[in-house]
Amino acid sequence: MSKLQDMFGLDHNVLGALARLLFSLTAYLMMAQGQVYGVNNAVVEIYTEEYPPYSYTENGKPAGLATEVVVAVFKEAGLVSNIRFMPWARAYSATLKNKDTFIYSIARTVEREDLFVWVDEIISWDMYVYKHRDKKNINLTKLDDAKKYKIGVVRQDARSQYLLN
Fold first, then answer.
1. 47: which strand partners?
2. pLDDT, position 84
3. CATH class of 3-103
4. Burial class (CB in 10 A: 0-12, 13-18, 19+), 123
5. How many CB atoms within 10 Å of residue 58?
6. pLDDT of residue 85
7. What's the pLDDT at 3?
8. What mean pLDDT comes out for the span 8-22?
9. Taking a C-beta distance cutoff of 8 angstroms, is the pair 69, 27 a contact?
10. How does the average pLDDT of the chain come out, rounded?
């Protein structure tokens, strides 16, 4: 087990993501058109949502698998950051409106590609549609079959944006 695994309790996949994210973030910060983060103790705002087990608050402090990676990367880069938890639509909107802010855990989609400067992937995931186990009459063979049903999603989430397109 490596020192980082001991320190952060991270598995091999998360450590690889951490290394890629640190490299990408460092390269991004070095190339940022003369903007130097961390100078005069400037605080970098980071937005996210309560999304256990990836990001959540525990005893008033940021926690979660993705949060641990983000905190470690900013600490290693010597940057002062402030993680702000809010509903997803608000976090998404705040990141679009405020220059030099970060957001995680966000899905990278075709629609979002040009809206953000993408640093790296922390965790990969897939999208699924679920039904109540007692609803035996619901059988979907393709996504289009779901149009006749009510589907609950988080506003501005990649899944809602995907279903609307």
1. 84, 103
2. 97
3. alpha beta
4. middle
5. 10
6. 98
7. 46
8. 57
9. no
10. 78
Section 65-82 average pLDDT: 86
CA–CA dist 42, 20 (Å, integer): 24
Segment 61-86 shows an average pLDDT of 90
State the number of CA atoms in the 13 A half-sphere of 158 facing the CB.
Answer: 14
Q: Which residue is it, tokens 């940057």? A: 79
Sign, Cα dihedral of 142, 147, 149, 154: positive
**C-alpha distances out from residue 101 to 35, 37, 63, 74, Å:** 13, 11, 19, 13
Domain spans in the chain, listed from the N-terminal domain onward: 3-103, 128-165
The three state secondary structure string of 123-154 is CCCCCCCCCCCCCCCCCCCCHHHHHHCCCCCC
Length of the chain: 165
Structure tokens at 155: 């506003």
